[in-house]
Amino acid sequence: MNKFFIFFTIIFAISCSQKQPQPVRFSGEALGTYYVVSYYDINENVYQSEVDSILKAFLFIASLHNPESEINAVNENKDIVLSPMFQDIFNKAVSISEISDGAFDFTVGPLVRAYGFWNKEREEITDEKIAEYLKFVDYKGIQIVDNRIVKKNPNMKIDFNAIAKGYAVDIVGQFLEEKGIETYLIDIGGEILGKGRKPDGDCWRIGIEKPAETAYSDRDVDTIIELCNAALATSGNYRKYYEKDGKRHSHTIDPKTGKSVEHSLLSVTVRDSETWRADALATAMMVWGVEKSLQMLEKLPGVEAYFISAGNDGAFVITKSEGF
Q1: Angle at alpha carbon of residue 22, lines to 25 and 30, rounded to 5°
Q2: Cβ(177)–Cβ(162) under 8 Å?
């Protein structure tokens, strides 16, 4: 009897050790967009309720759409003690603002609103009005002192939209890793993190969208890349814009001039080790344009980029960094 029990135990242990991780996939809505989570797990655990809770809690930290969020309290100049997560996002945003010399500036929100890219209520933009708004755009004018925000000007406001989705992807990834999941793909509104390889050894395959003719055009794939242990973030001008006097104006605002960028770059996809940084750098590169972005990439080891620009003949011009 004992021998049979030992034999059964050994066979059971071997069969368990040979069990392959199974695919799990779920999706939903969060942060004003969609999310999709895919991973491989031997026990086929579905963590959607936990992921939903994480993303819902994040809304109370960094969402401008949530009137009860921490960021809105800061923007309303309420005297609050900042949470560790808010301080972490803030410090990460500062780091990209410094790296980009202000091409990424998390205080540019008032200008974005003025142009109507927040709620589609666009003001009549004049040079005088831009100059007035630019008084409130300067990331160096906001600091954290003793766990509280200190502003140079009370009219200054923080906007984490260009880093928040990437940051949310990373915290969901941390959660999955805490659950022992090593192979996963997280996509929140186009900001993506892929870790590990599938059981067959393949990397995750991700499509980079081809710039659309209008905001309402169907989505089409320009190219497909493999993603293993890396993050991917895309920023583009071809779906968010307004038209005036027959001219299309981009939603990408240069924080230094206060005006929409006017170069030929339509989209940039950044590959990095962390999604929050890829997200923020993609915004900075849309301000820089291709040439300056390539120069800056030389100072950012491990960061690569894929650029799609408008050519003179109407065709797309593809430019890639050396390691992409």
Answers
A1: 15
A2: no
